[in-house]
Amino acid sequence: MAADDWNGDGRPDLLSKQDDRTVWLHPGRGTGGTGTPRSLGDVGGATAVTAVGLWDRDGFPDLVTREVDGTLTLWPGRGGKPLDTGVPLLGGRGFDRYDRILGAGDLTGDGRPDLLVRSSSQGKSWILPGSRTGVGERVRVAGGWAGYTLIG
Questions:
Q1: What is the rounded radius of gyration, in angstroms, for the C-alpha atoms of the chain?
Q2: Which residues contact 139 (CB under 8 A, 6 or more apart)?
Q3: DSSP assignment of 54-97, as one string?
Q4: CA distances (Å), 133 to each of 76, 105, 111, 117, in order?
Q5: Which residues touch 112 (CB under 8 Å, ≥6 apart)?
Q6: Helix H segments across the chain?
Q7: Whole-angstrom Cα distance, residue 152 to residue 71?
Q8: Cα–Cα distance between 62 and 30 in angstroms, integer?
Q9: Does the first or last residue of the chain, that is N or C, have fewer Cβ atoms within 10 Å of its Cβ?
């Protein structure tokens, strides 16, 4: 996934989640691809991982994961250093009903990053307005999304 400038070197970076539950930083090198990847740590039993920009507004890009039990967890970025412990987001329960979760920037125009979620069984998508510590009530975006395999 694209992760803005995760390590603070002025270049966009990539992140990946491996089967062993670790997230890896692939530092961007401008026009020269990526540098040597390094592990940022274990995100537990996350079933979905998305980069969400400056969610907690501390100056470092962050991650949100969906756990097996359907809760959303914020993993604060630390400027390319290994991840600290994740923090459950307020209002972030029951998200196992969505098959796609995406950090989508500020869709609501309030200056905060938001999430875009989709339920393929319903064919609908919603915006989850972000706050520093959680997510607000979902806002329906559209129907007809069941046939797509990737949103981003």
A1: 15
A2: 108, 126, 127, 128, 129
A3: STT-SSS-EEEEE-TTS-EEEE---TTSPP---EEPBT---GGG
A4: 11, 16, 15, 18
A5: 55, 106, 129, 130, 131, 132
A6: none
A7: 21
A8: 21
A9: C
For residue 110, give both structure tokens.
């309030």
Locate 55 and state its tokens: 């969610």
How are the residues of the chain apportioned to helix, strand and coil, as percentages rounded to the nearest 5? 5, 35, 60
Residue 67 CA to residue 44 CA, distance in Å, equals 8
Per residue in 17-75, pLDDT (tens digit) is 888 888 999 999 887 789 999 999 888 888 888 999 899 999 889 999 998 899 999 99
